[in-house]
Design brief:
By secondary structure, the chain is mainly beta. Helix content is 8%, strand content 29%. Bound molecules: FE2/S2 (inorganic) cluster.
């Protein structure tokens, strides 16, 4: 569904881990963009109903893109740039709260 623009469709710069699977990424990509490009399911599931959710605004307003990044839950994926080796997890329902 999502594709890079032709002038940016070159090889990946590095990889990140999404739910245990290796995913290609480029410097400057956001976590939300990588998840949309991966295209294998919702970005998270609603805390209340479990309904599938996905990034909507891509500018930090709607909070539909919350994911776990390197062990930190509820990070706005559209505002976080990927780094080599980053570990990203989709959130299913309520995230764990650190004691
Ligand atoms: S997509 Fe709306 S806050 Fe991230």
């Amino acid at each position: 569904m999502f594709q890079r623009l032709p002038d940016t469709a070159t090889a990946a710069d590095f990889t990140v881990e999404v739910d245990g699977t290796t995913c290609a990424a480029r410097a400057g990509d956001t976590v939300a963009a990588v998840l949309l490009m991966a295209g294998d399911g919702p970005m998270r599931r609603s805390v209340v109903s479990g309904a599938p959710r996905a990034a909507y605004c891509m500018m930090g307003v709607c909070f539909e893109c919350l994911v776990e990044v390197d062990g930190l839950p509820s990070q706005q994926g559209c505002l976080v740039q990927v780094r080599p080796g980053m570990r990203i997890k989709r959130q299913n329902g309520r995230p764990e709260i650190a004691p």
